[in-house]
Design brief:
This protein is mainly beta. Strands 1-2-3-4-5-6-7-8 form an eight-stranded antiparallel β-barrel. Strand 4 and strand 5 form a beta hairpin. The longest helix is centred in the first third of the chain and has 16 residues. It is elongated.
Length: 183
């Protein structure tokens, strides 16, 4: 674990322990993000890493445990990518994360996310490569009204893997704008 990962773990644990003194913030929420994904695609011949950009989406479900802590589950469509040995691969994933919430005022919060995601890559021959990997993220959330919020987020999926025509650093970064609905 490197220094930044240790710092994120410490911040997350600090937020979790701080919730014991905070008022409860019950509620379930659902969200959808329109996302821009950048993925590192290593060339199997030269080893050079090229970045590809595609658009996709992310669906999420969340549950506030307290005012400063939530749990989120997500389904992500990473889109398609290709390299010299693979003509078109689709990537998708599901994940579960703990979320530390830092309220800046009544309508604006910073969310720090850390969890695990299962990512699946499928090539043209329908061969699947499955990887369980950490995911990290941060988002800014603006409350529009008690039932709707807007989110601007960035997430990283550490998908370094090999198989199905891929090897090396295939990490995916997601920059997204989304909307949250509370029921």
């Amino acid at each position: 674990m490197n220094t930044s990962q240790i710092g994120l773990v410490a911040a997350f644990l600090g937020a979790a322990f701080a919730t014991a003194a905070c008022a409860s913030e019950p509620g379930t929420y659902y969200g959808v993000d329109a996302a821009s994904f950048s993925k590192n695609v290593p060339d199997p011949v030269t080893g050079a890493v090229n970045q590809q950009f595609v658009t996709g989406y992310r669906l999420l479900w969340g549950k506030h445990i307290s005012k400063m802590l939530a749990v989120e589950a997500e389904a992500v469509d990473f889109g398609r990518k290709s390299n010299a040995s693979t003509v078109g691969m689709t990537f998708w994933g599901i994940g579960m994360s703990g979320v530390g919430i830092v309220p800046l005022d009544d309508n604006f919060s910073v969310y720090l996310k850390m969890g695990l995601a299962t990512t699946i890559a499928t090539d043209a021959a329908l061969t699947n490569t499955v990887k369980i990997s950490p995911t990290l993220g941060m988002c800014l959330q603006l409350e529009v009204n008690p039932n709707i919020a807007v989110r601007l987020s960035t997430n990283t999926y550490l998908i370094s893997t090999s198989g199905a025509g891929l090897f090396g650093n295939n990490n995916a970064s997601i920059d997204a704008l989304g909307i949250i609905f509370r029921f």
